[in-house]
């Protein structure tokens, strides 16, 4: 069996090779860059016996926990996203981050989270939407389900809550029900990874461009979800996003 460090190197190498295969744009002989352009490579490494890093994303091999830094946004309106990249739709998102979505996707892949495309509506041959969804095996659906929490410090004390606690239903005025999010893996268009282009990382309203989506009720209604402001720290507060495999409560397990 190939070790995780070896898989890490091979996976990142393959990603770099894919990027290098993109066609180059011819430039005029008269155009001379002011300085040489350096190739950008993802920072990767082993932190200890079971912890690894890709860029600013860290992950643990045994528990399959993923961590990365983020900041509380200043959303005073309805939410469509939970997490976006800094260049994304900040006004509709609860959190923002400066990580590379590609690095996060590599962490999911290396930790063997299967991508479940169950929330992506099947299109017609002409590309129009239908009301049909793909049939996904139960083991894939189960393996793609994750829990997302946030950690932050106040006067040296660490606090951690499920991110669902920071999202309020507009009609029920209660927090988003405790439950999983679904890793779907997003898509490529014109040779580009959608989350890198759009900045979409975790979506509340289903978005094919996001890496992760919310599968619960009202995930298609853009008026239902709002920030639970009195439960959140102030905007710009630095937090750590923590992703773990979803563990349903015993009462919700099938007999």
Structural write-up:
The chain has one domain (67-249). The chain has four helices and 16 strands. Residues 13-40 have low confidence and may be disordered. The strands form three sheets. Strands 4-6-5-13-14-10-7-16 form an eight-stranded mixed β-barrel. Helix content is 15%, strand content 28%. The chain is globular and about 55 Å long. The protein has helices at residues 4-20, 101-110, 138-143, 194-198, and strands at residues 44-46, 51-54, 57-60, 66-72, 81-85, 93-97, 145-154, 157-162, 167-169, 181-183, 188-189, 192-193, 200-203, 212-213, 225-227, 238-245. It is an alpha+beta fold.
Summarize the structure.
The chain is of the alpha+beta class and 255 residues long.
Layout of helices and strands:
Blueprint: H1 4-20, E1 44-46, E2 51-54, E3 57-60, E4 66-72, E5 81-85, E6 93-97, H2 101-110, H3 138-143, E7 145-154, E8 157-162, E9 167-169, E10 181-183, E11 188-189, E12 192-193, H4 194-198, E13 200-203, E14 212-213, E15 225-227, E16 238-245
Parallel strand pairs: 5-6, 13-14
Antiparallel strand pairs: 1-2, 2-3, 3-4, 4-6, 4-16, 5-13, 7-8, 7-10, 7-16, 9-15, 10-14, 11-12
- Biggest sheet character: 8 strands, mixed, barrel
Rg (C-alpha, Å): 20 Å
* Count of discrete domains: 1
Q: What structural category do the secondary elements indicate?
A: alpha+beta
The CA-CA distance between the termini, in Å, is 35 Å
Order of helices and strands: HEEEEEEHHEEEEEEHEEEE
Average residue pLDDT? 83
Strand order of the largest sheet: 4-6-5-13-14-10-7-16
The share of residues in extended strands comes to 25-35%
């Amino acid at each position: 069996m190939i070790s995780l460090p070896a898989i890490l190197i091979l996976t990142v190498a393959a990603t770099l090779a894919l990027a290098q295969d993109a066609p180059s744009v011819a430039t005029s002989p008269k155009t001379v860059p002011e300085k040489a352009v350096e190739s950008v490579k993802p920072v990767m490494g082993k932190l200890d016996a079971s912890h690894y890093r890709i860029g600013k994303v860290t992950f643990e091999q045994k528990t399959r926990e993923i961590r990365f830094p983020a900041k509380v946004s200043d959303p005073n309106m309805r939410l469509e996203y939970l997490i976006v990249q800094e260049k994304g739709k900040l006004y509709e998102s609860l959190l923002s981050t400066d990580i590379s979505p590609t690095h996060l996707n590599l962490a999911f892949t290396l930790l063997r989270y299967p991508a479940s495309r169950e929330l992506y509506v099947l299109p017609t041959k002409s590309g129009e939407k239908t009301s049909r969804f793909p049939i996904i095996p139960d083991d894939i659906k189960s393996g793609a389900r994750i829990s997302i929490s946030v950690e932050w410090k106040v006067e040296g004390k660490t606090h951690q809550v499920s991110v669902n606690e920071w999202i309020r239903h507009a009609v029920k005025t209660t927090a988003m029900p405790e439950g999983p999010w679904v890793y779907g893996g997003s898509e490529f268009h014109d040779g580009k990874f959608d989350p890198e282009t759009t900045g979409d990382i975790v979506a509340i309203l289903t978005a094919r461009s996001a890496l992760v989506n919310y599968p619960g009720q009202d995930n298609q209604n853009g008026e239902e979800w709002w920030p639970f402001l009195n439960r959140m720290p102030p905007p710009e507060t630095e937090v750590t996003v923590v992703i773990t495999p979803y563990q349903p409560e015993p009462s919700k397990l099938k007999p």
